[in-house]
């Protein structure tokens, strides 16, 4: 599946400190294949991977994340942007707001009409009216009436007429008379796009001047969904897309392609047959779904948030001058802790989550160390070398630990300082090498 493919793609990057032309090209090839498998069309996949490659090249990889994770983050951001970046709300300010529903047969128009009425009544405090505009199949009118009853929304029906334009207009008039501030017009579909259908729906549009025209499409139809979307948009210039049947393991790649081909926002997704199975479309969530990496992205984000480059530079300077002290040490501990619960953090790394499920990782591991540092005076924190035996005893008492723990920390700190100094000073390192027998 997509997850495995991405895992494999990221393996190429494992252990590399920097993202380079060669390793990113290999990875992007894998990712392009994975996207194509997830129903993203070729052109979109290519543009996307080219963009990600440009952004990734030459990026320095932060110490706390791997190149693969950084790349995931870049991809997630790019995907989110490609799908519109933010949530796109319905424009329902006009009274009454007319919403026209369009799409092929079986796409889920009637089901969505019911869901939308339910959502607007329940979540937005609106008083919707449903209009049965599919005049060709009596069963279609019945279906909408049943749904209307289920969600407690009135349905305008005219079984005498077979003129969808007239019915739509009557529906809007009915809404005005009854004080309905939303009119949702369900329409007939076709098995495929044809001229008669397009003419009919265009005529309904002209007659009712809808504020929103929502194009409903079955996400399981993959590439066909993109072609249909383009044909409908060319004729109707719709205001938004509804992706249905995204429940189960549908891959969601259609969301990416449709947005990039017609450049209209996806507003809702249908996730089941029930009236409650409707979600507002969140580009960031869909990006994670397409990447199949969910939590890795938030891990990377958290790591990046905590990584303050300026702070790091300051620290480098202090280490070089051998001025790294207990204040800095405490800041480091806090940085690590800010990233969250240790077990949670490790659990987000693919492959590790399951492995550590039953292992106890002590979140309190830093507690005694922090207590000891807290018991030092400001002078002592800045001058670790001045902490003699008498001071250590006092610190042990004050922190509720014991002299052994304080000595252990002092020793660890001294060792750490030594290593840091060596690493930050290439001169010393080479001298040491030269002095080796
Ligand atoms: P229309 O011809 O466009 O009006 O399509 P319908 O609303 O009649 O839906 C066609 C079929 O798809 C029905 O069996 C619906 O229950 C089903 N359906 C619609 N939306 C969804 C969805 O989001 N998930 C699933 N699983 N089924 C859906
Ligand atoms: Mg229908």
TrEMBL record:
SRP54-type proteins GTP-binding domain span: 265-278
UniProt key word Cytoplasm: yes
Enzyme class: hydrolase
Catalytic reaction(s) noted: GTP + H2O = GDP + phosphate + H(+)
Primary subcellular site in the record, as a coarse category: cytoplasm
Entries under PROSITE patterns matching the protein: SRP54
GO biological process, one term: SRP-dependent cotranslational protein targeting to membrane
Any GO molecular function: GTPase activity
EC number per UniProt: 3.6.5.4
Domain of life: Bacteria
GO cellular component: signal recognition particle
Keyword line: Cytoplasm, GTP-binding, Hydrolase, Nucleotide-binding, Ribonucleoprotein, RNA-binding, Signal recognition particle
InterPro entries, alphabetized: AAA+_ATPase, P-loop_NTPase, Signal_recog_part_SRP54_M_sf, Signal_recog_particl_SRP54_hlx, Signal_recog_particle_SRP54_M, SRP, SRP54, SRP54_GTPase_dom
Keyword Membrane attached: no
Residues holding GTP: 103-110, 186-190, 244-247
Compartments it resides in: Cytoplasm
Pfam family, one: SRP54_N
NCBIfam families, per the entry: ffh
Record family assignment: Belongs to the GTP-binding SRP family. SRP54 subfamily.
Subunit annotation: Part of the signal recognition particle protein translocation system, which is composed of SRP and FtsY.
Domain comment quoted from the record: Composed of three domains: the N-terminal N domain, which is responsible for interactions with the ribosome, the central G domain, which binds GTP, and the C-terminal M domain, which binds the RNA and the signal sequence of the RNC.
Function: Involved in targeting and insertion of nascent membrane proteins into the cytoplasmic membrane. Binds to the hydrophobic signal sequence of the ribosome-nascent chain (RNC) as it emerges from the ribosomes. The SRP-RNC complex is then targeted to the cytoplasmic membrane where it interacts with the SRP receptor FtsY.
Name assigned to this protein: Signal recognition particle protein
Organism: Sphingobacterium allocomposti
């Amino acid at each position: 599946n997509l997850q495995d493919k991405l895992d494999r793609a990221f393996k190429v990057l494992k252990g590399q400190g920097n993202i380079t032309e060669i390793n990113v090209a290999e990875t992007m090839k894998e990712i392009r294949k994975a996207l194509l498998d997830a129903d993203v069309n070729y052109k979109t996949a290519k543009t996307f991977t080219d963009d990600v490659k440009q952004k990734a090249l030459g990026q320095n990889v932060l110490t706390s994340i791997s190149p693969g994770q950084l790349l995931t983050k870049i991809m997630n951001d790019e995907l989110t942007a490609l799908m519109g970046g933010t949530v796109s709300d319905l424009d329902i300010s006009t009274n009454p707001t007319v919403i026209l529903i369009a799409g092929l047969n079986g796409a889920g128009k009637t089901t969505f009409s019911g869901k939308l009425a339910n959502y607007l009544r329940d979540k937005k405090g609106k008083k919707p009216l449903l209009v049965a505009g599919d005049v060709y199949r009596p069963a279609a009118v019945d279906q909408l009436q049943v749904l209307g009853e289920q969600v407690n929304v009135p349905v305008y029906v005219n079984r005498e007429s077979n003129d969808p334009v007239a019915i739509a207009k009557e529906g809007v008039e009915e809404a005005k008379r009854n004080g309905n501030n939303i009119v949702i017009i369900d329409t007939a579909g076709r098995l495929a796009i044809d001229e008669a259908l397009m003419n009919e729906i265009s005529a309904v549009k002209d007659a009712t001047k809808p504020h929103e025209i929502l194009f409903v499409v079955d996400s399981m139809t993959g590439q066909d969904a993109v072609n249909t979307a383009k044909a409908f948009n060319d004729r109707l210039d719709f205001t938004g897309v509804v992706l249905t049947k995204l429940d189960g393991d549908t891959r969601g790649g259609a969301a990416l392609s449709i947005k990039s081909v017609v450049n209209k926002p996806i507003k809702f997704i249908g996730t089941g047959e029930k009236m409650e199975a409707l979600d507002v479309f969140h580009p960031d969530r869909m990006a994670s779904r397409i990447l199949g990496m969910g939590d890795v992205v938030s891990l990377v984000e958290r790591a990046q948030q905590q990584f303050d480059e300026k702070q790091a530079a300051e620290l480098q300077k202090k280490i070089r001058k051998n001025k790294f002290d207990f204040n800095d040490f405490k800041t480091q501990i806090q940085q690590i802790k800010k990233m969250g619960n240790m077990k949670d953090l490790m659990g987000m790394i693919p492959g590790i989550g399951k492995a550590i499920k039953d292992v106890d990782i002590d979140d309190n591991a830093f507690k005694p160390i922090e207590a000891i540092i807290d018991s030092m005076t400001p002078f002592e924190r800045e001058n670790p070398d001045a902490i003699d035996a008498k001071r250590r005893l006092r610190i042990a008492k004050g922190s509720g630990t014991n002299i052994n723990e304080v000595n252990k920390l002092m020793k660890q700190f001294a060792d750490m300082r030594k290593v840091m100094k060596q690493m930050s000073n290439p001169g010393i390192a080479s001298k040491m090498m030269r002095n080796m027998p």
